[in-house]
Automatic annotation (TrEMBL):
<feature type="domain" description="DAGKc">
    <location>
        <begin position="33"/>
        <end position="186"/>
    </location>
</feature>
<keyword id="KW-0547">Nucleotide-binding</keyword>
<dbReference type="InterPro" id="IPR037607">
    <property type="entry name" value="DGK"/>
</dbReference>
<keyword id="KW-0611">Plant defense</keyword>
<comment type="similarity">
    <text>Belongs to the eukaryotic diacylglycerol kinase family.</text>
</comment>
<dbReference type="GO" id="GO:0007200">
    <property type="term" value="P:phospholipase C-activating G protein-coupled receptor signaling pathway"/>
</dbReference>
<feature type="compositionally biased region" description="Basic and acidic residues">
    <location>
        <begin position="437"/>
        <end position="451"/>
    </location>
</feature>
<dbReference type="GO" id="GO:0004143">
    <property type="term" value="F:ATP-dependent diacylglycerol kinase activity"/>
</dbReference>
<keyword id="KW-0067">ATP-binding</keyword>
<feature type="region of interest" description="Disordered">
    <location>
        <begin position="437"/>
        <end position="473"/>
    </location>
</feature>
<dbReference type="InterPro" id="IPR001206">
    <property type="entry name" value="Diacylglycerol_kinase_cat_dom"/>
</dbReference>
<dbReference type="InterPro" id="IPR016961">
    <property type="entry name" value="Diacylglycerol_kinase_pln"/>
</dbReference>
<dbReference type="GO" id="GO:0006952">
    <property type="term" value="P:defense response"/>
</dbReference>
<protein>
    <recommendedName>
        <fullName>Diacylglycerol kinase</fullName>
        <ecNumber>2.7.1.107</ecNumber>
    </recommendedName>
</protein>
<dbReference type="GO" id="GO:0005524">
    <property type="term" value="F:ATP binding"/>
</dbReference>
<dbReference type="GO" id="GO:0016020">
    <property type="term" value="C:membrane"/>
</dbReference>
<comment type="function">
    <text>Phosphorylates the second messenger diacylglycerol (DAG) to generate phosphatidic acid (PA), another important signaling molecule. PA is required for plant development and responses to abiotic stress and pathogen attack. May be involved in the accumulation of PA during cold stress.</text>
</comment>
Length: 487
């Protein structure tokens, strides 16, 4: 990330007047017009003490009412309140409100799960111009910040560091990023252990969905349906198992996880204890991907193909960004021959395609540390379906954008289906030397980006049901506000 001079950063250019943020607040004087107004969301529990320290610094330097602790208030509630107030001010002829809404940028500080939560909320709001989002790395992996040039190490929390960051936000460029919808369907089994996933086990962006359309073949009593979305990756298998062990340990002993270096060291140790480095000895073959599920991909409209998965593959990753496990790039850069023979493309973040990569074990993963190292490239697709074999195993582990859970599987004759499809896009803020690449910068590269526009959803979900993360259910516009101005 380019180094800026903190002395040249004028905080007035980022501050938002209180009356914009709080309905019916007094306008005490004519406020200065900010060039780069920001709303800041901070997970005060992320990064050990760093999240809380960062919250204090941002509130000191900016208007404290434009800086929010996600532990106290959800982002959908905050944005609902602010956008409703902005709309009312615009209707009354407030020109400053118009300019602030046009220039507004969001900052989110936390782990990848926290960042994904905010991205999901912004996606749900369906604004005419979604505010672009900058991410501050406060987690263990920090794949989202790293992908867009904001680094992967926990930042400084002093005045100077925050000013430098604000200066970079002002200079940052906007990039589109694909979002992906995931649906998981399972019937209540006739026998065996397969309770619904506990709500606290689920990532922010994956949620129980009780309203099913009549066309849904699983729209019967006793069906568990979960819907959500992700931005970086969905993974299943051994890597998610290690991540689940790490998160479980952190929940039990949060006092031991206040340092990023210690967190990463603990993660590596758990990789050993979970058998990731000795998978052939500790990991039963029944949990290998090929034995666990049938994987189908759709490269083009209406054409499902079964994907061949080698018997040794223990983890499968569906990747949208060029960063996994703290900055590694599992897809790599295919050479021209492989691109031609296998119809592969570079991994753009806005081309409507996911890169699907497989790993045998942690030793296989170590190839990513070498120049041009990559996992087993399985396919690129804009739709993916996992159909789990009946009775193959009683559970597996899954992970969305750094947030893992233990997924029970039925042991009777009812199948679990997980399907991933392209959802839409949101705007990100990126430094000019970031590693993520846009298809708009490579116009000559062939792409299936437009295939999604022709794609029909087999299960005939309504627009509201299918194309929603579900994170912003509380976003409702009061009747007195002109809704046409918000969409």
């Amino acid at each position: 990330m380019a180094v800026a001079d903190s002395e040249s950063v004028k905080l007035e250019e980022f501050k938002i007047p209180t009356y914009i943020l709080v309905h019916e607040a007094k306008v005490e004087n004519i406020p200065e017009e900010p060039k780069c107004p920001v709303i800041v969301f901070i997970n005060s529990k992320s990064g050990g003490q760093l999240g809380g320290d960062l919250l204090v610094t941002f509130r000191k330097l900016l208007n404290e009412k434009q800086v929010f602790d996600l532990g106290e208030e959800a982002p959908d509630e905050v944005l609902r309140r602010i956008y409703v107030n902005l709309e009312k001010l615009k209707i009354s002829g407030d020109e400053l409100a118009v300019k602030i809404q046009d220039r507004l940028k969001l900052i989110v500080a936390g782990g990848d799960g926290t960042a994904g939560w905010l991205l999901g909320v912004v996606s749900d709001l369906k604004l005419s111009h979604s505010p672009p989002i900058a991410t501050v790395p406060l987690g263990t992996g920090n794949n989202l910040p790293f992908s867009f040039g904001w680094g992967k190490k926990n930042p400084g929390t002093d005045d100077n560091s925050v000013k430098l960051f604000l200066g970079e936000v002002m200079k940052a460029k906007e990039m589109k990023i694909d979002s992906w919808h995931i649906i998981m369907r399972m019937k209540t089994p006739k026998e065996g252990s397969c309770d619904p996933i506990a709500p606290l086990e689920l990532p922010h962006s994956l949620h129980a969905f009780h309203r099913c359309s009549e066309a849904d073949e699983l729209n019967v009593e006793g069906c568990h349906t979960f819907r959500g979305g992700f931005w970086n990756y969905f993974s299943m298998g051994m890597d998610a198992q290690v991540s689940y062990a790490f998160h479980s340990e952190r929940k039990l002993h949060p006092e031991k996880f206040k340092n990023q270096l210690i967190n990463q060291s603990t993660y590596a140790k758990l990789g050993c204890t979970q058998g990731w480095f000795c998978a052939s000895l500790f990991h039963p073959a029944s949990r290998n991907i090929a034995q666990l599920a049938k994987v189908k991909v759709m490269r083009k409209h209406g054409s499902w193909q079964e994907l061949h998965i080698h018997q040794s593959i223990r983890s499968i990753i569906c990747l949208n960004l060029p960063s996994f496990s703290g900055g590694l790039n599992p897809w790599g850069t295919p050479n021209s021959k492989k691109k031609r023979d296998r119809e592969l493309t570079p991994p753009f973040v806005d081309d409507g395609l996911l890169e699907i990569v497989g790993f045998r074990d942690a030793w296989h993963g170590l190839v990513l540390l070498a120049p041009n190292g990559h996992g087993t490239r399985l396919a690129q697709a804009h739709r993916i379906r996992f159909e789990f074999h009946k009775g193959a195993c009683d559970h597996t582990f899954m992970r969305i954008d750094g947030e893992p859970w233990k997924q029970p599987l039925p042991v009777d004759d009812d199948t679990v289906v997980v399907e991933i499809s392209h959802l839409g896009q949101v705007n990100m803020l990126a430094t000019h030397d970031c590693r993520s690449k846009s298809i708009n910068d490579h116009k000559t590269t062939p792409s299936h980006h437009n295939d999604e526009e022709e794609d029909s959803n087999e299960e005939d979900f309504t627009e509201e049901e299918f194309r929603k993360f579900g994170a912003a259910d509380t976003f409702k516009i009061p009747d007195e506000v002109d809704i046409s101005q918000l969409s």
